[in-house]
Amino acid sequence: MSATVEHEKRKREILEKALDVFVEEGYADTTFQKIADRCGITRTILYLYFKNKREIFTFSIKRFTERLEESLRAIVADESLASYEKLERIAVLTVENCVEHARLLSVIMAYLTHMKRSGGDTAERVRRRTIRMRHIIAGVVIAGQKKGELARVPLKPVIELFYSIVESAIFRVTMLDNDSVDELASAARLFINRLKN
Q1: From CA 12, how far away is CA 30, in angstroms rounded?
Q2: Does 190 lie in the same domain as 109?
Q3: What is the rounded average pLDDT of the residues 107-117?
């Protein structure tokens, strides 16, 4: 096995174990040493992979958003689907991903709470992480309107409503321990059906 492949494999293992520490300890109480201890390595070795706990945390979020974005782009690229079908699949896939990654989202919510208490700009931080998803949704809606598949309604409220379904899913899985996607998927379908031309 090449050194690069081995390095990436080890990095993934560290991220998985670090997530356990973040979930158990919370972002504020997680230390680089605690992550190293959980991984069974020294801090010096951990520094070969990551600079600090924030980089580990940020990398976990980036990995999650990149994988989701890749899946969404595959849906958008499927020419056999009408725009409203793409929107429905995007909504369902996103809600399912929220359920699947509830542990990571719980840590993110705790981190954002900690950041807000410290005076940080949580809205800007979230906006930067979700801007690509909003662009993907906007692209599908614009294309659907041009093809006549979707009603010509103002774009911004459509994106906000669509995104609020995602926020609701995150809130439900992190705060309410509700892992049912059916209700939110039904709400998304109802909303998307109203957009059909």
Answers
A1: 18
A2: yes
A3: 82
